[in-house]
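Exercise 7.
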Amino acid sequence: MNPQLILALQLLLAHVITDFVLQSGTLIEQKRLKKAKAPFLYLHAFLAGGITYLLLQDWSLWYVALIISVTHFFIDLWKLHQGEDSLSYFIIDQLLHLFVLLLIWLWLTASFSKVLPFIDTFFTSTNVLVVLIGYLIVIYPVGFLIGKATQRWQEEIAKEGERTSLEKAGRYIGIFERILVLTFILSDNFSAIGFLIAAKSILRFSDKNKSGARKQTEYVLIGTLMSFALTIIIGFLMRVLVF
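Solution. The predicted structure, written as tokens, is:
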């Protein structure tokens, strides 16, 4: 087993245990209310470093535990002083923690000199560029195109008060379904696309007997077929370029 991979997994496992397994809702609420005066905040930071120290099983790396404890404390304290406990702050908080772990991993494996060559290789690889561009296209331009193409039907349904779905739910459903379809195509799992269509059909047509559901169903069907068709076309073009 690659020792560098084991080290990365050990660091990540310690973080997951500390930040998710050992934090109950009550303890999290204590941190939110008392902030820097919360006893659990200090215990939590200590556990972040302590568990890492135990998993690394190298007692000479005590300074790694210290660095993780201190940085974990200040990152969490910063998050606690934000106005709201939103998804964006949660993501930023986790990215900061992971960035610290990445720096520690690069330091312990003496891999800092490999960062720039890796970035250069990453962005000069045809396969990487094709895959990256392909996913970005199906997420953003394709979604914009479908939105514009179906806008008149969306407005018609909205005028008649027949739209009862969650705000922007269709947009996010479309993004995830296109990501899945493209992933299935690139991984040769074409049969999974059929299961995805069937699953969405069951959910979308479950309310067909409700008032105004026919137009809503037709609108969803048009958007779904456009989404699948465009993603499949892009996926096969990517396969031609990559494989």
